[in-house]
Amino acid sequence: MLPSVLNYVQVRRKTRAKTFSTGFDLGRRPFEGVLPPTQARRSMHSQVLPTTQGLARRQDSKESPKSLKAELEVRAQQVEESRSSRVKESKAELEGRVAAEAPPHFLSEPAARSHPPPPLFRRAQSFVVRAPQRLPSKSRVTTDSLKNVMHELALEVQPWLGQDFIPHSRIQTAERDFGQGDPMESKTWGLIAVKLMPTNFITKGHSEFMDEYPSSIEQPWLDFALVRTLETLRYPYVNKLLGIFRDHDTTYVASPFAAEGGLFKWSKKGKSPGLEREAEVLPFALQILDAVRALHDLGIAHRDISLENILITGGRIKIVDFGMATLQRMCTNEVRGKPSCTAPEMHLDAEYDAFLADAFSVGVVIFAMATREYPWLSTEQGCCPLFEARSRQGFVASLLKRRNGSTQGRQQLFDVLSRGLLELLEALLFVDPRERACLGEVCFKGQLSRASIWLMAWLSSARL
Fold it and tell me: What residue spans carry the Polar residues bias annotation (predicted)?
């Protein structure tokens, strides 16, 4: 027994010696490589040994101590630089992963100001839109993802139970905003807005709808899917989809009720056009510009931006009605939107940029908010004298002869609107899309010939 034990001890010593000198043993069993502290220190000394031996050899060869010291300092510096670079790479990788996984934030609290805002500028909100803020590129919406969402929504449709939804009798008919639907009291959500649409038009899903109405310019299931997708992306300017219900004749779409109504209703009241009204318009204009810019960065063109399709709730705007939206930036022979808000290039046979078409619509909306009237009734050639004059003379020149009916003494709009607002409207309402300003989208980055609205004075005054 004794010789076999001695042989085993000798074999283990040889194996451990190999383990200490190399730092690991390829043939070891699990947990054999875990060393006690004393043995670990010995292993450390065995790994440093080659450097010590090399130093001894250099001393034997009578090499200068100064050169040896310099070489050791160089080695130490190289080791430190290597360690620092690894730390920086790890930190950069971690920061990149956190930035990619973090939810997009569109709104931020205002920074502290060392001086008060201008007396005519009265903030309607306690926040400032920091524009433009970017979303991760992986957040772009795709056709395949929308198809999946439309399929899921079709499976989620529930039967309509009338006893669970009671019409809200306290809201008078004259005060209702039918753009968002009828106000109802729900046992689950409280006060909500419910849109009623014929079931034979909505059908049971997107595929069936496209089979029944292949040439329809408005697609309800696309609207539902985009709203649900934007909710998932935490896009703050969308009115949530609470649920879809159906009975034999009607399909009911429930969403939160916007107590302040739509922007069309807001634009009809308030102060007369002038600096005080512009101060009220500015916070909403900032949100609209940021909302549409963010849609474009997600790859979505709305194509139906209008006063009627923007709701206000708690001082925040919500964009609705995505039924005419598209994921294709370049479009041909597709006229979309309200006649007064439609970009003029949509009426041509040539290809148009849907992002720049949305920018034109935003310009019309801001004009209507500031003046309480539309700049024209239609952008189609030969349909509206006001737009024809705008096309011939230019935006500012056309305002020199146009008087505003809602101001005292019917003043000229050129004298009523501030120079900063005129600059912004001129940039957004160029008839030629090649001269039109963009909303600061990523796709226009680096185009020196394309102006960005965020560099204009009227908007910069809001970011003090």
Answer: 45-54
